[in-house]
Amino acid sequence: MLSAEAASRRPGRRRESSAVPRISPLGAGLPGILLLGWSALFLISTSRATRLIPMQGHSFAAGFASLLVTGVLALAGATMVIPLFVPSRWRRRGSDDDYVDIPSGIGLMR
Fold first, then answer.
1. DSSP states of the chain as a string?
2. Considering the entire predicted model, what is its pTM?
């Protein structure tokens, strides 16, 4: 009977991959920083922040402006930035195949 490690190294057997493709940890952080910056700009200069809202003639702009005024964009931005400070997002994912256990020359003393 083969162990799980030996079975995974058999020829012809592919390594199982995760269902979600790997993306950068900055994937959600950078848009979150943008939303926080936009909210900070709103606190400093209301007219400049509302002038930067895209598609001014559409209902999209009215909804976006209401999210900006009520602070929901700042909350969404903070929610997107906070996971950047979790250390597990920055660890390399993968198997431990690179790790080789080399026995030391000392061994047990008698």
1. ---HHHHHTSTTPPPP--SS----TTTTHHHHHHHHHHHHHHHH-HHHHHHT-S-TTSHHHHHHHHHHHHTHHHHHHHHHHGGGG-GGGGSPPS-STT---PPPS-----
2. 0.61
